[in-house]
């Protein structure tokens, strides 16, 4: 399914298909009313509403997707893409698979809207999952076993094969019901999110393909909610990977002296831990949500002089290092955090240096926090709430995602991107052993997406305000 023709040709053919359909309709109309009537009868017969599908078939399609092993570091992307493309043709939906990087397909399905000039709705999910420690699972991680309580066990059942399939099933059901979207819907399946998304969402975001899709809003992943309210995310914390290093005079293990490297490092670790505690206390006290504070966790600690039996024990080392995973919310001040690192966590006065091995931007090119608006300036937020409400669902207040998702690539372009995985009354088990999702909750999520897609694709707002933001 990989295009052998120039990408631009394939893209414009794919994205211009709706225009072709419009031209056919115009041609029929000018051909005379006499010919139009039988055609309309035929069309209405073809699009007449069908009864809802047997839920066991819907669950078995979900199981089929879960059984494809797309765990990093060797995801079977080919099998996943073939499965998605087969689903698309059974609905039917137009489909294309783009390989911006060899062996890493981005599969895009299209449901053309009646007004292709309006910005489209992009339903986005990633196809890869994190690895498993099978011995810690009660069921095979790629078996999609359903237990007596109706829980489906599989890696990806929450993160996020559930959402990708719910997008597909919602569109399948809406098409069966005869619903016609005004806006075009794209369902996108992308690789590599679990390893940073550079070859998936990153490449898509900078491509002509995305530009041609004229996206108005992106729905990507959220998190399960342990209570009855769904969660929706408008921003996420940026990962900073910090390594601090202390140096000092080496010395005999028996000697007491000031400013040895381990001593200097431990002073810093104490300072960092006090900061960590102050942030965590605000979460524990209920003053802030997890995504609203700066988290700091130690990733490694390195010092000592190796020997054949372990470490030289009568020597104080001249270097000591520690690594931290720091997560910075978009509402924090990155400049003051960096000053804190330089002045308090790795001060030169204590022979300390630091390096940020990774530093994902907290602000955009204009110096503004990379977030999606949740007020009246962004109609998509209120429409999401409306869609959920119409499906008899409840939704909590907007949150910041504590870790990273592919949303950041789209938010950086200025596109509204909302993290939303409809899983209420569900323990948060992404990346955990025994990841599972209740069958009924999965089916309910499809209904919620049907309602959201209806609400989104029927919305005809002021399209001049929602064109692709070129200036960024
Ligand atoms: Zn995910």
UniProtKB/TrEMBL annotation:
EC number of the protein: 3.5.1.14
Gene Ontology CC annotation, any one: cytoplasm
Any GO BP annotation: amino acid metabolic process
Active site: 128, 193
Annotated Zn(2+) 2 binding sites: 159, 194, 431
Gene Ontology MF term list: aminoacylase activity; metal ion binding
Coiled coil: none
The keyword Disulfide bond is annotated on this UniProt entry: no
Cellular compartment(s): Cytoplasm
Cofactor annotation: Zn(2+)
Residues involved in Zn(2+) 1 binding: 126, 159, 221
Highest taxon of the lineage: Eukaryota
Keywords: Cytoplasm, Hydrolase, Metal-binding, Zinc
Bound cofactor: record note: Binds 2 Zn(2+) ions per subunit.
The protein's name: N-acyl-aliphatic-L-amino acid amidohydrolase
Organism in which the protein naturally occurs: Trapa natans (Water chestnut)
């Amino acid at each position: 399914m990989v295009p052998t023709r120039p990408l631009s040709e394939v893209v414009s053919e794919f994205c211009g298909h709706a225009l072709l359909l419009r031209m056919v309709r115009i041609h029929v109309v000018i051909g005379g009313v006499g010919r139009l009537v039988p055609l309309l009868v035929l069309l209405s017969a073809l699009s007449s509403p069908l009864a809802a599908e047997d839920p066991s078939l819907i669950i078995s399609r979900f199981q089929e997707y879960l059984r494809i092993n797309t765990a990093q570091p060797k995801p079977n992307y080919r099998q996943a893409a073939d499965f998605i493309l087969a689903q698309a043709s059974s609905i039917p939906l137009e489909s294309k698979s783009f390989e911006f990087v060899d062996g890493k397909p981005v599969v895009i399905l299209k449901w053309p809207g009646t007004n292709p000039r309006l910005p489209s709705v992009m339903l986005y999910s990633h196809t890869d999952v994190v690895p498993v420690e099978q011995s810690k699972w009660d069921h095979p991680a790629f078996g999609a076993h359903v237990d007596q309580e109706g829980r489906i066990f599989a890696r990806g059942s929450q993160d996020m094969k559930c959402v990708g399939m719910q997008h597909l099933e919602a569109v399948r059901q809406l098409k069966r019901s005869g619903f016609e979207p005004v806006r075009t819907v794209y369902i996108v399946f992308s690789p590599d999110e679990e390893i940073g998304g550079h070859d998936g969402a990153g490449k898509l975001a900078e491509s002509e393909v995305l530009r041609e899709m004229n996206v108005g809003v992106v729905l990507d992943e959220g998190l399960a909610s342990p209570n009855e309210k769904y969660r929706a995310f408008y921003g996420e914390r940026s990962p900073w990977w910090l390594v601090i290093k202390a140096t000092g005079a080496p010395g005999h293990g028996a000697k007491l002296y000031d400013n040895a490297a381990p001593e200097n490092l431990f002073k810093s670790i104490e300072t960092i831990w006090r900061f960590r505690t102050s942030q965590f206390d605000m979460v524990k006290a209920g003053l802030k949500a997890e995504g609203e504070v700066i988290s700091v966790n130690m990733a490694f600690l390195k010092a000592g002089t190796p020997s054949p039996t372990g470490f030289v024990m009568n020597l104080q080392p001249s270097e000591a290092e520690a690594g931290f995973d720091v997560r910075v919310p978009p509402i924090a001040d990155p400049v003051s955090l960096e000053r804190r690192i330089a002045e308090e966590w790795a001060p030169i006065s204590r022979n300390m240096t630091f390096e940020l091995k990774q530093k994902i931007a907290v602000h955009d090119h204009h110096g503004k926090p990379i977030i999606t608006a949740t007020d009246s300036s962004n109609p998509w937020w209120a429409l999401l709430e409306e869609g959920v409400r119409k499906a008899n669902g409840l939704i909590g207040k907007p949150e910041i995602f504590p870790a990273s998702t592919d949303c950041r690539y789209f938010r950086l372009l200025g596109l509204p991107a909302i993290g939303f995985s409809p899983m209420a009354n569900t323990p948060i088990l992404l990346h955990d052993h025994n990841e599972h999702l209740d069958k009924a909750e999965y089916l309910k999520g499809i209904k919620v997406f049907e309602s959201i897609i209806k609400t989104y694709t029927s919305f005809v707002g002021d399209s001049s305000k929602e064109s692709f933001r070129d200036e960024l």
